[in-house]
Amino acid sequence: MVGRPGRSKGCFNCRRKKKGCDLARPSCGQCVKSKVACKGYDEKLGVILYTPADSKAQTALRNSATEVAYVGTFWELLIPTTSRASRTSDRDWTRVVRDHYSSDGILKDAMLALTFSRIGKHSGNEDVARYGLIRYNTCLRELTRQINLQNGICSDETISACLILSLYEIMCSSASQGANWLNHMRGIETFFQLRGPQAFTSGIAHYLFVGARLNIISAAVMNRRATVFDSTAWLKVPWSLGMTTKSMFDKIVDLMAHIPRILEMLDEIEITKPDQGRDPEPLLKACWKLDAQLQTWFRELTEIHAESYVDRNGSSYPAPDFYAPLTADAEINHEYAQALSVYWMTCCFLHTTLCLAWEATDSPLYLLPKRIDPVQYATLISKSLPYFSAPGAGEGCLVFYAVCIGIALHVFAITDQASSPDSARLSNIFDPKVVAEGIGRHIGYYLRTLAASMVGTKIDLNSRRDDERMTELAKKWWGGGALVTLHSRKATSTIVKRTDLKITETPWSMLP
Fold first, then answer.
1. Which residues form the Zn(2)-C6 fungal-type domain (predicted)?
2. What is the DSSP letter of 317?
3. What kind and span of H or E run contains 310?
4. What is the spatial distance between Cα 235 and Cα 229, in angstroms, rounded to a whole number?
């Protein structure tokens, strides 16, 4: 408490007459001299509330605590919480991010941009989402500066920031999501190539490479161009020091790495112009080789799960049936489930390419083995959606599955089954009324803009969903710019079991 500021301390008479008061007690000298009664002094104290300004340290501490709380909430949304989530295939690089984002720098900016934007959209808080957008723009400027300073040979931190921003495009961006995601993937692919495979044999770099490889290959598939990641060096050198052993997920990604080159070969034979096309035999030979490798991988997966599963609590579960769709309560580790989804996705591309190349030879489709049918794998992707969109799966699980959803929709489109129940099941995931908090809506935006980017066009996200437009884009992509329709056999709900199939058999001996 302090005296009233700005007031004289003289007696009432002196203040009223504006004379100097000597403050004598009990009567001042002026009042004694004037022979008047001194009316005394106002000794009541005033109260002023004073709040000291926060120091920089206090402000930084408060902001840091807020950031930690938001980031923690974001990871709770992203990462699966079920008992099956002991390890997921795309969490290696996210684990690196969780361990290192707190250090100031571009990685922290990227992480906070993603966190605040997603939490803001999840909770409907526009201010928080707007703050995330500000951090995103700041991060992009800093990222450009860092790349220029590093002359393209980017650090692990810069690559991590690019990976986070690619996730931002799927989960938070409201426009050009697909095109921006493709740009991020092309940039990361370039960073990897400049550093060479030997740079990813150990440490954080190894986990970044292992975690990002599938996304880079998926982007190469969308662009229909081969990459170096199907070469022997890139398939072996990053694992040469034994930092990690190749999992079933890593092995299926190895096989999917060959799809971009196969699609490039498909473009070279120019199916839409038979009179100018090249000999499709080299393409068919490459397809049959990859098909045999896929069948070997699938048999290995089924052998691993041939016996019942026992969890850490001692509960026993029957062996999963990999010929059937995954249900919401399927007791299978997320890593194996995601590996299986990559297998379905690879089969969709391979079998569609086989059918198109086969037609280019003027051979009837009924001569192909019955299991060569992309629709059955697209159907498995559709019917397994409940597993990847279950409440305990986390938003990251559905984001991972987004590319599988897009590929299945492509298959349904080019086989004139875009209006089928299986296709509708996948399309409904884009409806915010079906998937809470609108993550499905963002995935829908991402897939629609991605489909448009794949054929070099744009799409209006503000208009109502146009299934015919998306079907046209899918047919153009498979036709290399021209509309093409694949006349597939009737789809089956499960994969045809071929217990008699031997890997040493030639494609012609596998004919039904």
1. 10-38
2. E
3. strand 309-310
4. 7
Q: Is 476 left (phi over 0), alpha (psi -120 to 50) or beta?
A: alpha
Residue in 440, 446, 447 with CA at minimum distance from that of residue 410:
447
Q: What is the pLDDT of residue 480?
A: 62
Q: How far apart are CA 277 and CA 480, in angstroms?
A: 13
d(CA 442, CA 173): 8
Residue linked to tokens 């996730």: 167
How much is the pLDDT for 226? 92
DSSP state of 316: E
489: left (phi over 0), alpha (psi -120 to 50) or beta: beta
- Tokens representing residue 413 in the block: 């489109």
Q: What is the pLDDT of residue 476?
A: 82
Task: Decide: 111 and 97 in contact? Cβ < 8 Å.
Answer: yes
Tell which residue, 161, 168, 355, has the closest CA to residue 271.
355
Contacts of 375 (CB under 8 A, 6+ apart): 411, 412, 415, 417, 488, 489, 491
Q: Which is nearest to 301 in space by CA: 279, 328, 276, 320?
A: 320
Q: Residue type for 363, please?
A: S
d(CA 380, CA 387): 11
Cβ-contact 214, 339 below 8 angstroms: no
pLDDT of residue 181: 92
In single-letter form, the type of residue at position 126 comes to E
pLDDT given for residue 310 in this prediction: 59
For the record, the structure tokens of 92 come out as: 């290696």
CA distance 137 to 253: 33
Q: What is the pLDDT of residue 61?
A: 43
Rounded distance, CA 332 to CA 89, Å? 13
Residues of the chain with pLDDT under 50: 1-6, 45-50, 55-61, 83, 85-91, 272, 274, 436, 490-512
Distance CA 222, CA 120 (A): 31
Tell me the sheet residues that pair with 316: 310
For the segment 348-387, what is each residue's pLDDT rounded down to a tens digit? 999 999 888 887 777 777 778 888 889 999 999 999 999 9
| Nearest Cα residue to 79 out of 67, 62, 64, 97 | 97
Angle CA 149–151–156, to nearest 5: 80
Dihedral sign computed on CA atoms, order 300, 301, 302, 307: positive
Distance between CA atoms of 109 and 133, rounded to whole angstroms?
11
Whole-number pLDDT of residue 105: 79
Pairwise CA distance, residues 243 & 130, whole Å: 40
31: left (phi over 0), alpha (psi -120 to 50) or beta: alpha
